[in-house]
Amino acid sequence: MTTVGSSLNPYAQYGSAYARAAATQPSLANILAGNEEALSSNAATNLTLSDAARAQLANAAALPDFTTVTAQARTTLDGLYAAAKVSGPIGSDGKPSIDLAKLDRRALFAIATNNAGKFTAAEQSVAATELGGRFNAALAPATATAKLTGDFSGIYKAALTYLDGASSEEKATAAWSAQRAAVVKGVQATQQDPTKAPSGIANDPVATYLAQDSAGSAAPTQDFSSVAKAVRAALDAQASAATAAGKELVFDSGRKTGQLVDLSSIDNRSLSAVSLNQDQLFSPQESFAAKQELGSRNRASILAALKQSQSSGDPTQLSLGILNTYSAMSDEERQASNWTPAFRDNAVQSYKSTRSLLSMLKSA
């Protein structure tokens, strides 16, 4: 999944497989309505849906159909070409001429599999490359953590989470099923011995990734000054919208008047640019608000790790969760959050001490 080219596209086989599988699926509306007759038309189908599952299916039903997603993806690509003043996704230098980062996974899947025959081979290739890059990015933090702890289980868990986040169209393919089955085997193997990366598992995308990037590198591609300028423009746009509505953009939730800034869509590296204010582009109020938002997100991450530790009965999950968050940060995010190497080393030591205690208890 990490090496993608026009001659070897891991998504290329998905298109026809999706079409075959989709034709055999029971109607979503019938499932939600509990229509037993519709379900009994497929003798192999025996579904008992929990309330949570029904809610998830209802949310899925609200999504646009794949035909609409495909048409929108085609329009988006054409718009990107027009904005970049290019005629295709690859320039004369052999490098991508457009950025697909803003397309969601479902749209990228439509392009990579050439759904409805709307996309060129070059477009399929760059979309598949983008999908592969997102898979790699999902594994990078856990891989960096594994380098610190020697525990490979988190990498396979991250891969399983990524695969389970696929759309129904992607899940309907044989390729997705094969990869997920391989990752499940990897999860099981690392549960038995987390200190060794599993080997010999067919269709294992994690093994492919580790063979190419065992360090889990995920270096930012945009320089920090450019990040700061982009978030400055985003905040200015919010201020302009507030002014047009006759309000002042404010950064303190305690203010009784004004329109409170919305930082929810601003990523952590951009928030760190506001918080650190290295280029003096932001006011003290803006920097303080960004620092508060970063702190809130970090606390939420630690709380999620604590809950995972409690629900799984594995106390090491807290340290691993903290280390995964640390590994996912850029240097600027760590500086803005005051997550120092000493803090990281304490988490590593906590993991190792807890693991050693658990080992002693098991052998007692």
Properties at a glance:
364 residues; mainly alpha; 2 strands; 1% strand
What is the string of SSEs from the N terminus onward?
A: HHHHHHHHHHHHEEHHHHH
Please state how the strands of the largest beta sheet are arranged side by side: 1-2
Q: What does the overall shape look like? A: globular
Question: Largest sheet at a glance?
Answer: 2 strands, parallel
Radius of gyration based on Cα positions: 23 Å
Strand content: under 5%
Number of helices: 17
**Class inferred from helices and paired strands:** mainly alpha
Query: For the terminal residues, how far apart are their CA atoms?
Result: 43 Å
Helix content: 55-70%
Can I get a quick summary?
The protein is mostly helical and 364 residues long. Helices cover 64% and strands 1% of the residues.
Describe this structure in words.
This protein is mostly helical. Among the domains are: 14-131, no CATH class; 223-349, no CATH class. It is built from 17 helices and two strands. The chain has helices spanning 14-23, 28-33, 36-40, 51-61, 66-84, 105-112, 121-149, 153-164, 168-171, 174-192, 205-212, 224-244, 268-276, 284-312, 316-328, 331-337, 341-363; strands at 249-250, 259-260. Helix 5 (66-84) packs across helix 6, helix 6 packs across helix 7 (121-149) and helix 12 packs across helix 13. The relative contact order is 0.08. The model is unreliable at 1-10 and 12-47 (pLDDT under 50).
